[in-house]
Design a protein that fits this description.
The complex is a heterodimer of chains A (271) and B (251). By secondary structure, chain A is of the alpha/beta class. Chain A has 2 domains: 210 residues, Glutaconate Coenzyme A-transferase, CATH 3.40.1080; 51 residues, no CATH class. Chain A is 30% helix and 25% strand. Chain A has 8 helices and 15 strands. In chain A, strands 1, 2, 3, 4, 7, 11, 12, 13, 14 and 15 form a 10-stranded mixed beta sheet that branches. Chain A has a 3-stranded antiparallel beta sheet with strand order 8-10-9, covered by helices on one side. Chain A has a two-stranded antiparallel ribbon with strand order 5-6. Chain B is an alpha/beta fold and 251 residues long. Chain B contains 8 helices and 14 strands. Chain B has a 10-stranded mixed beta sheet with strand order 4-3-2-1-5-10-11-12-13-14, with helices on both faces. A two-stranded antiparallel ribbon of chain B has the order 6-7. Classes of the chains: A alpha/beta (271), B alpha/beta (251). At the A-B interface, helix 4 and helix 5 of A face helix 3, helix 4, strand 9 and helix 5 of B.
Chain lengths: 271, 251
Amino acid sequence: MAVIRTLSEAVAELIHDGDSVAMEGFTHLIPFAAAHEVIRQGITDLTLIRMTPDLIYDQLIGAGLVRKLVFSWGGNPGVGSLHRFRDAVENGWPRPLELDEHSHAGMANRYVAGASGLPFAVLRGYRGSDLATRTDTVATITCPFTGEELAAVAAINPDVTVIHAQQADREGNVQFWGLTGVQKEAALAARRVLVTVEEIVDELEPRPGGVILPSWVVTAVAEVPGGAHPSYAAGYSVRDNAFYRAWDEISRDRERFQTWLRENVLQAVAR
Amino acid sequence: MSDWTRDELMSINAARALAGARTCFVGIGLPSTAANLARRTVRPDLVLIYESGALGAKPTRLPLSIGDSELADTADAVVSVPEMFNYWLQAGRIDVGFLGAAQIDRFGNINTTLIDRGPGRPPIRLPGAGGAPEIAANCREVLIVLRHSPRGFVERLDFITSVGHGTGRGDRERLGLRGKGPVAVITDLGILRPDPDTAELVLTDVHPGVDIEQVRAATGWPLKIADQVRTTEPPTAEELAALRALTAASA
């Protein structure tokens, strides 16, 4: 059964140096507050997994906590580059970053395999793309029924998956809705699951398209209103597109990024 | 001096290319502009599909990201990301995939991963694949939209992210790619289409006021030119008004 913790307690208990961590949320419900707590606690040598690294991993990479990135699209949506990600890949700053790079379909299926307790998933993909030549987590497999050649992708089973949801109840049952992305699969693939929520309610009211994670597949829940900002939580907040645009300037320069990190994350009060 | 920009010619002609489509898998940026313009002009009932999970999104303004809340709020259905890629895209249910590119070659293969800068310098790192490899593989047809320049239209890609026609006609079948692949590349200078026999891109249309030499100069390989190069219809007042209203109200 999930335990209810403060964010700083939950991060300290669940995430450790050297862990593989998936913080998912496809544009919507990105768990920024939890990532900021990881930065404050200086948890390092992480393997970070996420379809779209987005600003959340740009910040963790720039903070020097990331050894390896498993991903499928590393841009600032509609704006341009992730400059901290680029600086790490192109110049090894603040440390070299190992990449395991995929397509969205491949990453989604890697989580599906992980959630299903299978060693790999099968898809129509990667054929003819150079992506398959740069990773050891894609292979060709022959269908035993038709003889057709298909792509196999290795399962992802993170040590920890972190997601942000709209609500949990006092038992630690979780519900999220709107664009639900790949969070259900990422959570069920993980050994430990941390969920930050907008609010803890007495009773979860079923929502159209809502995803329920029962308390017994969640390790810890922390109440963190606004914990997805500058991403958003449908029904609670809207995406802060202005911040996504501003990030381009903030992150372009190493010193300016470090100042931002110090003033907005490191010196911020833990929740 | 004409009453429109080269970018407007590109977006309007990209929208026109969707006139016969029922469903379109939309990438963010130029493809999203074109697909939303098509809903306001040539194809009001076009079903827009965004990889974030929105099937049948009807945004009133251009979204900044593929996951803006308006896409989900206006969608016919919202599905998970694995469902989107497996049941909807991979199963071959979508008519047109609309893609952008950093680099393209003469067979419509796409690079969105990295750009070489020569010996001793690390490649420029681009965002990467996203949904594009499987969009290019599994949609019934692919449209590509990008600005014409020798840096974008290259002799040899630095990285093949998404396969168009591979090394020529027959390659898609050999690779087991079930869709038709790129059927048109729409640029700010004109339109290129694959040769029916070789699948090499051929200049078939130029926009009003563009001459063929200009297109040759902006292409990094010896560009094949169709016997009869057409000139695209000038934008109508309605198309221009719809496009300008759309971009003025972007998120």
